Amino acid sequence: FGMSLMPKYSYFKLTIMKKGFLPILVLLFILLSSSKVFAQGKVTYTAILESQDFRELKAELIFKDNRSLFSFLPDTAVKAENEHSMNLNNASNAEFEISMGEPLASYHQVFIDRHSQEIIASERYFENGELHPCITVEPTGVIDWKLKNEQKVISSFTATKATASFRGRNYTAWFTTEISVDAGPWKFHGLPGLILEVYDDENGVQFLISKIEIPNQGKPQDIEAPDKGKKLTIEEYA
Questions:
Q1: What's the pLDDT score for residue 215?
Q2: What is the mean pLDDT of residues 203-212?
Q3: Predicted structure pTM score
Q4: Quick one: which of 86, 128, 150, 204 could link to 161 by a disulfide (CB 3.0–4.6 Å)?
């Protein structure tokens, strides 16, 4: 991943001057074909959430072209100890605070389409004593990241620090431009590289990378938006 796909400028200039237009087209075709290796992949994260009693969950992000889908993995999902408990700390963090004995992996997904600039998530809302499925829709680009002049190595990748406030929490993210895709866990996006790690300043929400597959090993997975339940804006859901 550390190797650049682009040739040195001097070589590219020499090709233009000496070999004409056709070799340039062939070269561009090779470059574009090679870049497709980075257009799809799968990332596994360890998620630690305050709303799930700080127990570790596994989560998966798959991305392809302009789409990505984040899901919690069912074999490691946490079930609430009290199947009739409910934890709603505040409306701004309601997406992580509903716990009614149903593991997050059974319903919670986040789909991001950068072409249509939409985030579509499957959620649950509580009304009249019952949980109901719903779909929330909101625009992309609402996280105002501040890039910092600070780097560290995560899983052999050089990562750069960024900070932002989002949904009532202050977050720190570490992303790598060595994997140049605008993708990350949950609703985190908008940085010039894959987000490897993100956490809030109280560690109530943490996503830590554990595995990267680029391209996907095995059969590529379809990336489709969730569509089950009532459709709500994020303001209506909150």
A1: 74
A2: 94
A3: 0.74
A4: 150
